[in-house]
Design goal:
Radius of gyration: 15 Å
Number of strands: 6
Helix content: 40-55%
Strand order of the largest sheet: 3-2-4-5-1-6
Distance between the termini: 33 Å
Strand content: 15-25%
Order of helices and strands: HEHEEEHEHEHH
């Protein structure tokens, strides 16, 4: 299985070097997601969790209180969309992330819904539009753990250089 530190450090280094923000989508069970998130937040001074359930020692905001964060800056935003998702709160808080920062979107495994056209379209958007998209099963089953990340980093570098 890919070690979180391996790819999180590579992504963060790229973001800092380019002074860009990026979306990292993590699809998997909560324990796996938290292990991945932990490797990201150690690199940031002001991470913020959007959602009601937080298992980490960081600032938390609910969707109803997201407006209170407007005008402030965060360097890492974790959006827990495993149970509920507020597009309005997501939009407000994504704008608070500084250059070099990251937005991490947590989504539960799709299960039987994974074959539905709506999920296929969404996954396609993640992979096409300047996002890093990781599924727990992808990282577990990859023979060469670096291939998935290298492909996404190359795509990201090509986009931000144009």
């Amino acid at each position: 299985m890919a070690k979180p530190l391996d790819y999180s450090t590579r992504i963060i280094t790229t973001l800092h070097r380019r002074h860009h923000r990026a979306l990292v989508v993590l699809e998997g069970d909560l324990d796996w997601q938290l292990s991945q998130v932990s490797s990201f937040i150690t690199h940031y001074a002001a991470p913020l969790w959007l959602g009601s359930q937080v298992q980490l020692d960081i600032d938390v905001v609910t969707a109803k209180k997201a407006k209170n964060w407007l005008g402030q800056e965060v360097d890492c935003l974790i959006v827990d969309a495993n149970c509920t998702f507020s597009p309005e709160a997501f939009g407000m808080l994504a704008g608070t992330v500084v250059g070099g920062g990251v937005v991490i979107l947590l989504v539960k495994p799709t299960g039987a819904d994974g074959d539905k056209p709506s999920w296929q379209w969404l996954r396609n958007q993640f992979t096409r539009n300047n996002c890093f998209y990781f599924q727990q099963s992808d990282l577990t089953l990859l023979a060469d753990e670096g291939v998935h990340l290298e492909r996404q980093l190359a795509h990201f570098e090509a986009i931000v250089m144009t």
